[in-house]
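CHAIN AND CONFORMATION:

***
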Amino acid sequence: MCQTEIDAGGELTEDDEGTRRCCEETNQCIDECLGPNPNYTPPKGSRGSVEMFYPILRDLRAGLGPVATERLRLELHDYVNGVGRQQRVRQGPYLPDPWYHFQIRSADVGVIPSITQNEYAMEFELPDSVRYHEAVEEIVQECTKITILLNDVLSLQKEFVSSSSSYRTAPVSHSPKRRQ
């Protein structure tokens, strides 16, 4: 997947068109592997990061039931599209307000697909009535916030060196460049 290539300092950090193509390739891979007619053969010329995702998704699909497979397909699309959206916001003239920052980071931090991956690892499938229960959704949102903050703290030193160093929670919260 393209997150590392797109994130601060990656080869696609400043490449909107490359990011768009990478997200499209990754979304295609997700649909081919987790959609109704699985195909686990990457197209010729695929990025290495996308190509290596095919066998991973093949193995995940083999261990998930149909409900969890479709849930993972949708969650991964949200994740990939969130990475692209974050890049566009990061390149804009203003930093987002902290609440919008949390909203867009919630889609690209990877917590939500990880829940379904845990179902695979633990060899069970949550019914939608449990997974999308209001109490579980609240727990997921709080875990997402904690993960965003932890990710931002752990990435801060690396990203101060890069051009997008101000696109983390602490700088976004206190920046004069922020849109009011």
Q: What stands out?
A: The mean pLDDT is 82. The first helix runs from residue 3 to 6. The two ends are 33 Å apart (CA to CA). DSSP finds ten helices and no strands in the chain.
